[in-house]
Each structure stands twice: as C-alpha cells, then as structure tokens.
Amino acid sequence: MRPRVEEVRIQGLGVIDEAVLELSPGFTVVTGETGAGKTMVVTGLGLLFGGRADPARVRPGADKTTIEGTLLVDPAGRAAQQVFDIGGEVEDGELIISRTVSAEGRSRAWLGGRTVPVGTLTYLAEELVAVHGQMDQQRLLQPGKQRAALDRYAGDELVKPLRAYEQSYKRHKQVGELLAELTTRARERAQEADVLRFGLGEIEKADPKAGEDAELKEEAERLSHADALRNAATTAHTALLGDPMSGPEAAQDAVSLVGTARSAVESVREFDPVLGGLADRLAEAGYLINDVATELAAYAESVEADPARLAAVQERRSVLTGLVRKYGVDVAEVLDWARKSAARLTELEGDDDRIEELTREHDELTERLTEQAGELTRIRMGTAERFGEAVTEELTALAMPHARVSVEITKSPDFGPHGVDEVELRMAAHPAAPPLPLNKGASGGELSRVMLAIEVVFAGADPVPTFVFDEVDAGVGGKAAVEIGRRLAKLARTAQVIVVTHLPQVAAFADQHLVVEKASDGSIVRSGVVTLDREGRARELSRMLAGLEDSELGRAHAEELLSLAATAKAAV
C-alpha cells in the first residue's frame, strides 16, 4: 500500500474561508479564476508538511489558519513507524496531521494526536510528499537532495557499494575521533599517569593494612597512659582483695566484707528461704569479685611503659595520616583508591600500544574508503550522463526543446557520509548558454517543468508517494501543454499527483477535477473547493478555453479535449 493524501481541510488561509479537498489516488487538478485562491491549496499542503509559516497568509479577520490532513499509510510502513516512535497513533491506516498558524506568527503542529515540533512534519514529508511551488522549489535545489536523487536513479548498481562505503565510513570516523582524543590529550594523560604512579609508590612503600589505623590509635592510647592504667588496676585490686603487705589495722577489702555479710546471713538462712536466696547471691558476688581482682592483678602486671614502642606507633600513625590526608578519609579508602588507580594506570600505560593499533586501523580504513569512494564516483559518473540525457529528452516534450540538463560531479577533499562526490544539477536554457545551477538557470515556470521532467524520469524508480505542482505549465500552451498533461498522467500511474493549473489541456488529463470558487460578500471574498462531475468538468474547461462556461463552441472543444485526453491516458 502506497501512502497518499486522502483529505485536506483548510480554514482561514488567504482568501479561503473554509474548504475541504477530497483527493483521489491518481491525478488531481485544481483550477479556478484568478484570485480565487488556487495557490492557497498548494500553500496549505506545504504548511501541512512543515512548510514555512507566514502570518500574512492568515485570512483577514481570522485568529489563525488551520490545516488538517488525513493520510492513508501502511501501518507496517516507515511513515507509520515514525509516528509510533513519537507516541502518535495510526488508526485503521489513517494518519491525522494538523497545523495551525496564528495571526501573531505562532505555529503548532500535531501528528497522530501528539503535539510535535514543526520540524517533525518536515522530516516525515521527506518520505511522503514533494511540493513544487512557483516560489518554493525546495526539494531538488538542495545539494544533498540532488546527490540522493542521482543515487536513487542509479538503482541497484549503487546500493551494495554505497552500503559498504557507509559502514567503512562509520568505523573510520569512530577510529579517527578516538585516535584524535588519545593523541591530543597525550600530555594530560601522561601527567595523570605520573600522579597515579607517585601515589601508588607512596602507598606501596607504607604498605598499610585494613583497620591498622584504628588498632594503632588504641595502642597509642594505652602506651601514652601506661602508668595511669597500671595504678588504676592496682588500686582496684587492693580495694577488692586488700594489700597483703598491710597490717591487721588496714581497712577491710571488698572480698572480706562480702564474706562477713555472707557468714552473717548463712547462720540464719534456715529460718527464712528469702534470706537463704540472698546468702547464695552474696556467695556469687564473692566469687565474681575474686575473679575480677585476679584479672586486675594480671592486667597491672601486663601494663608497661614502653617509650620506644610508643614512638614507633606514633611515627607509623603519622605515615598513615599523611596517606589519609591525600587519598581518603581512612586507610580503607586509601586502599580502595590504590586499587582503582592501579587499574587506571594500566589503562593509561596502554595508550601507546592503543594509538599504534588505531593508527594502523585508520590507515587501512582510509585506503579502503579511497577505493570504495572511487567506485561510487565511477557509478555516479555513468549514471549522471544517463540521467541528464533522460531529463533533457523530457524537457524537449515540455516546450523546452533547447534546454539541456546535466549533472556536475566534483570531488570533495574529505570523505563524507555518502562518498567524496558533490552533485549539482545544472541547466543550460539554450545551446549558447553555459550550464548553471537549477535555481539560477531556470525561471519559476521552467523550474517546475524541470522538476516534472525529473519526477517523470524517476517514475519507475520508487517515486515519492505524492507530488504537488503549482502551475507547472506556466508560460506554455498548445501541444506542449498536452505533453505536460500526458506526462503528469504518466507520473500519476505510480504516485498521487496534485496540480494547480490554468491550462485546459492539462486539466483534461486529470482523474479528478477540483475547482476553487469564490463568492463576494461585500468587500470580503470567500473561496471554497468543489469536486466536479463530467458535466462540471466540461463547463470548467469551456471557461478556461473561451472564458465563457456556457459557450457551445467552448463546450464542444472541452468535450473533445476530454475525449482526446482519455484516449491518450489509455495509451500511457
């Protein structure tokens, strides 16, 4: 299923108050009297697909211009996927696009029910529509589009070589960027490596152990207060067990006092169980005090003042404090820093090998790209000649018999995403004229015909689904106009074609005929769009031929045109 525009609603655009265009899949023409607003139809389609918003186009008295389009798309196709990617919806193959432009110049866009930047519509339009307006010939005037057009015409011959080049180019760019980073930051990375080596050297020399800082702190406290600790233990021991060197007159120790208390209670425990329980607890207290006293004696014996060991501990703590000050809040963080820094240093020290490896790969890719780019150039040069001849032949039948279209291919000094070729379409209006870029070598009407010729040439090579031409027949008439109609009908066999025209010879070839009618309401002109039946087409063609829709001669001529066009279309 090829996408196409099914319906367009226009409100408040130029002279158009409100109009609905129901479009056919094939060839649709839009006609109407001068000033009726035919070009506004093309303008509306351009806005719908991301065209530049001009607040001057908002209808006088209206707050804004609103364009809404319904497109039929393949739910599994690329266009639908782009809509799904932004969270939009495609229901039953129908995609709704909307665009508003306020009188103050503010512009908003909706795609599949979601608000989107206007640029999103432009991106989508690349897959769906090509608008060729008299003042807006954008598509094939861009160098990138011209290169893409030539590549599309080259077809399968270019597909595989171009894909291989693009893969090589992508890797070449990645390697180049990484190599540039490694070489330009070599000094910074060398300085970083020196800092890491120094730090790791300090830590390795000190050889700290996990938890060592806390253990040393405790030991330093003990050594610094050795006398006080020993005296405290001795005093406590004496209080509990007494001093064996003291005479009988010395105060009784805790063990003796508890023993006295226990003896007093034991002597009468048999008279009351409560007192017996207290006697047992006094016995336990005596055993506990005795054990504590023994441990205090052992502790007092173990505590020694050791100035040499204290100095060693303080010196070690000073070393660890220096490391902690530089590399972490404690020894554990210092060790963690060392582990991470060792890994980073290994990475940095491998840069030289990495640079050498990347340089070798970059050189190999450069050589490969040179060969692949040369192959692309060869194919494009051959395609350019065929393409120019085909377009020139079409222009001969489009009342431009002396015009020549050629393709200029020049080489860029640098590799690009699609090769080294810079492609430019050129046209010489007559044999004595030099080939000039399309936007300089052709007038507006001629440029439309060049675009038509190019699109006809592309007709068998996957054309854009919808083409819009604004007065592609400007400046021609007679037989040339018939040929334009014939070629538009040919293009419409593979795509949807919408054409604004003032020539009956062109309009006669259409599958659908829309007329923009204007009605005057005082000083306000309103336009609407009407779909014509066979009789209505004859009347409109008669008006276009003779200026009088009711002229019998004009009607006869119109009927003849329609019959001739039908016969010619059948032979296309």
UniProtKB/TrEMBL annotation:
Residues 6-522 form the RecF/RecN/SMC N-terminal domain. Signal peptide: none annotated. Pfam families: SMC_N. GO terms for biological process: DNA recombination; DNA repair; SOS response. Keywords: ATP-binding, Coiled coil, DNA damage, DNA repair, Nucleotide-binding. Gene3D superfamilies: P-loop containing nucleotide triphosphate hydrolases. The keyword Coiled coil applies. CDD domains: ABC_RecN. Residues 348-375 form a coiled coil. The keyword DNA repair applies. InterPro entries: DNA_recomb/repair_RecN, P-loop_NTPase, RecF/RecN/SMC_N. GO terms for molecular function: ATP binding. GO terms for cellular component: bacterial nucleoid. Belongs to the RecN family. May be involved in recombinational repair of damaged DNA. This is DNA repair protein RecN. It comes from Acrocarpospora macrocephala.
